[in-house]
Amino acid sequence: MTTFTLNGSEVSLDLDPDMPLLWALRDEMKLTGTKFGCGVAQCGACTVMMDGMPRRACVTPMSMVEGAEITTIEGMEGPVVAAVQSAWAAIDVPQCGWCQSGQVMSATALLEMIPNPTDSDIDNAMAGNVCRCATYVRIRQAIHDAAATLEG
Length: 152
Ligand code: FES
Ligand code: FES
Hints:
Elements: E1 2-6, E2 9-13, H1 21-28, E3 47-50, E4 53-56, E5 69-71, H2 79-90, H3 100-113, H4 119-126, H5 136-151
Bound molecules: FE2/S2 (inorganic) cluster (2 copies).
One FE2/S2 (inorganic) cluster binds at residues 94-100, 131-133, 135.
Keywords: 2Fe-2S, Iron, Iron-sulfur, Metal-binding, Oxidoreductase
Pfam families: Fer2 (PF00111), Fer2_2 (PF01799)
GO molecular function: 2 iron, 2 sulfur cluster binding; metal ion binding; oxidoreductase activity
């Protein structure tokens, strides 16, 4: 049994301790906003917050989740993610959309740590989030726009 906090509520799941968190989220909890891409921590599609930091759910076994606070895209709230999502929508960042919840998670984590990031801060923070539609230029612009909104 693994007990942890998921999007603000305590949950207990009786799953194989080796099962990746991504499987538990998508197949058991039906939280399909977190996507499967590579399965080997190379693409960032499965990014969730674990204790406030971005984490690849595809390589996080349930045995590591005991007692943790997990937030998926469905549970993200607050001014930073709201600014990110508004900026994303304003300049139409998503194309096919598959990578986008992971992108939003990483962008939000970046802006929570660095409120006014440089291009190089953005490139470093977002390097692990791959987009096969190549929306990188718009992602970078949207992060700058969100930072400007948050600065007021
Ligand atoms: S599916 Fe987890 S990093 Fe690609
Ligand atoms: S929007 Fe299609 S993979 Fe990024």
